[in-house]
Specification:
nine-stranded antiparallel sheet, 9 strands, alpha+beta, TIGR04255 family protein, 235 residues, 2 domains
């Protein structure tokens, strides 16, 4: 499979619904239930319409019309991580008194690291999905280290959608250290190719027929079955 050469980077699970006014009365109860799932969660922000909890590698956002779980780990599609997401969904279902959703989706990002951004760009262009100009265009050099190809595939109907995005990226992370040990902060440069898969359902989604473990099982099945049909298999 195309993604066998990539590492899982992050998962964003999101639900949308009509105004859940129960949030105003049950925010504390919901937060306590989330802490039982992820014990090191702490309150990052709280307003009448939104509650944000964060921990080491995850963030839980519970809102009046939308709630989101963000996980950052190579294990976000493993059984334990998805079990925690399913438990958090049940907290929302009962705490917000949800009967139906208007949207449910999951967005998973996969990453493959390269020594230089030029290597990442060469890998992406080697997939023959994008035509890159061979001469200077728009008064910009074609060999600049800041040039990055990016491509999005969008598939959608009235009840569901699936997006596949692939791009190269170069970013610099600054790590602050004790000035008594080192005068300047440490900079870490990351060059990589990212594959972003976003799939979900829209419309009226009754919760009586929705089981999150089965929903994710279908999500992963479709991803593994069809990703090579879109991106091919790298040489």
């Amino acid at each position: 499979m195309f993604l066998d050469a990539f590492k899982t980077h992050s998962l964003v699970f999101q639900i949308q619904y009509k105004e859940a006014f129960s949030l105003w009365d049950r925010a504390g109860e919901i937060a306590a239930a989330m802490k039982r799932i992820w014990p090191d969660l702490g309150v990052q922000d709280g307003t009448p319409n939104q509650q944000i909890l964060s921990g080491n590698g995850y963030q839980i956002n519970t809102g009046l019309t939308q709630s989101t779980i963000t996980l950052r780990s190579e294990q976000v599609l493993q059984s334990q991580a998805l079990k925690s997401v399913s438990e958090a969904f049940e907290v929302w279902r009962s705490g917000l008194e949800l009967i139906e959703l208007t949207r449910i989706s999951a967005r998973v990002v996969f990453a493959k690291d390269f020594p230089e951004i030029s290597d990442a760009r060469e890998f992406l262009l080697g997939l023959d999905l994008i035509r890159w100009p061979e001469q200077k265009v728009f008064d910009q050099p074609i060999d600049s280290s800041r040039n990055v190809p990016e491509l999005t595939f969008r598939f959608e109907d009235e009840k569901s959608f699936a997006f596949v995005r692939i791009r190269s990226e170069r970013k610099t992370i600054k790590l602050n250290v004790d000035p008594d040990i080192m005068e300047a902060p440490i900079e870490k440069r990351i060059c990589r190719v990212l594959v972003d898969f976003d799939r979900g359902n829209i419309g009226s989604i009754p919760l009586s027929k929705l089981q999150i473990p089965e929903w994710f099982k279908g999500y992963v099945h479709v991803l593994r079955r069809d990703i090579d049909k879109v991106l091919g298999r790298p040489a």
